[in-house]
What we know:
The chain has 277 residues and is α+β, with helices and mostly antiparallel strands. It is built from ten helices and seven strands. A hairpin with a 6-residue loop joins strand 1 and strand 2.
Amino acid sequence: xxxxxxxxxxxxxxxxxxxxxxxxxxxxxxxxxxxxxxxxxxxxxxxxxxxxxxxxxxxxxxxxxxxxxxxxxxxxxxxxxxxxxxxxxxxxxxxxxxxxxxxxxxxxxxxxxxxxxxxxxxxxxxxxxxxxxxxxxxxxxxxxxxxxxxxxxxxxxxxxxxxxxxxxxxxxxxxxxxxxxxxxxxxxxxxxxxxxxxxxxxxxxxxxxxxxxxxxxxxxxxxxxxxxxxxxxxxxxxxxxxxxxxxxxxxxxxxxxxxxxxxxxxxxxxxxxxxxx
Length: 277
């Protein structure tokens, strides 16, 4: 059966067994620079869609016999190959067994991406807090392997899933290990402040401008009132519209084709945009 799939079988004299060697060749994308996790001083290699290329990138960095890569197939129809990577003497065996159990007990017909797998094996929570982290960088995956995490690679997806993930993992960058400790810590604190502002600033703005105006300096309060004089909506509606607009812009930037997006930008930025549109 494996011969029909393109593999090679090696027979050795005096041995009562044969070796199945995978020598299939497919057209695939070459290793390129990361698109979403760009660094300046670090390696400029990213995962590709081929699982063997991805595991070889990890194996090239971790040249140690303790690196274990186990292959499993997920999906009754697609039989998608997945690689479970972990360090034998570092990773907790209970964590490894839990990952294997969840992968081997998936009763699904197809698995096409790492994002689907992440949703299928994650614990359900009402807040939608992420429990795993995806990365396209082999060096980042190796860094978490050496910390005792498990990395799962799905064939056909240029991302590896790091499990489990905690809050600090989402506020760190691959660049931090290449910087001096003081500057790296400063950047981490800066990201914490940015996350705090992102989560709480709209609520603080509504609370202060609506119910606690005495906190604001008089000049700033007058400036806010003057800017809102001709706004027909309450502050809470204005904030919701602003959040909706940001999400709409982000979605448009990601989904609109490049040619159409550049045409729209040129149309709106031109001095005679009315005649253009």
